[in-house]
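ok so i was messing around last nite and threw this chain in just to see what happens. nothing serious, just curious
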Amino acid sequence: MNRKLVLLLSLLYVAFMAYLFFHFRSTEESFKSTIAIGGMVCGAVPLLLALFTKLHFNLPIVISYLLFLVGSQYFGSIQGWYGLGWWDTFMHFLSGAILAFSGIALYERLVHRDAEVEISPWIIFLFTLSFAAFGGVLWEIYEFSSDQFFNMTLQGGGNDDTMIDLISDTGGGLIIALWAGVRTKIKLKNKQEFPQLT
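result:
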């Protein structure tokens, strides 16, 4: 059921961006049509993963990802909400939180379930926070490279913009990392006190 829902939601977003692409191309709005192309590519990621891999999808993460694309690409870039000033910071904060949840999902798939009793909550905290912060760093590298090689203006505010974005990514990741560390500590405590029930 999750796979079918992921396919449907991704298809809807890709179709919406395709419609916007043809609309903006017909009105000769090249910037918005370029954003729509990016939207089709980004929206197709869950679709391609669902079609060509055997991944079990964490549906809340996929829905959060698609909602983030709506907020950043449609409202932020196409509708011009990035001009509000705070919208970019808010989007980076959300992306940090989504990346942190993705890090938790990745960790839970990579680590053997029995190993949870041996892993420190601090490791979970550090992994989750690092995953979110590193995702933010990769994004800023992409923005910097696009500006340098393709004469784009993704880093409109220069160093200030980059640092505010990174702080926002880290802030969103920090909140989820704290939650993940506390959750792990509680789970470990319950396993130690009630081993026969877990």
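not much to say yet. Helices lie at 2-26, 30-52, 59-78, 86-110, 121-150, 158-193.
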